[in-house]
Amino acid sequence: MVFTKKSLLAMCALTVLSCQPVQAAKQGEEEKSSSLTMKPAFLQAPREIGEEILKYAFISSKTDITNFREIGTTLSLVCKDWNKTIAKNAKKWVCDYFNINKKDEDVFWRFFKGKLIYTDPQTNAQTVLPISSLPNPLSGEFDLSKCGKTGEDLSINVGYRKVHNQANTSKIEIWFTPTF
């Protein structure tokens, strides 16, 4: 069913996007000049198809080095409709991506919105390291390069230790492991 749904979604997306040049070709010369103010074909599609296309773009933009905070911000800037759709659905999409059960969503979001705050002992300057900025908030390592020399002696991670990291041999490792 998932394969069929994705194939159908891709077919609908291509159909909606391919209609735009045909519609533009049918317009008269006087309408072409005002076509800049018309809604694109994506926004003329039924709401459900538009949301599925945007969800697919949101999820497929996720890589090993990107995080959902940046993806959501970038896609939200495209237009007001995308901003509204992402604001309404982003939490559900992120939970779907990480396979979070409905009953565990509140715990996940409390953890996801958490942050580590490093205070430099000499200058009292604070560096905030949000968990949501990790590419994978359930399995990742914080970049302590902004925290002075702390990164030379300390490694802070989320998840659980799968293999011994040779780079952390002489470091103290701290692991945060959320359980759902």
From TrEMBL:
It comes from the Bacteria. Residues 1-24 form the signal peptide. Keywords: Signal. This is U-box domain-containing protein. It comes from Candidatus Bealeia paramacronuclearis.
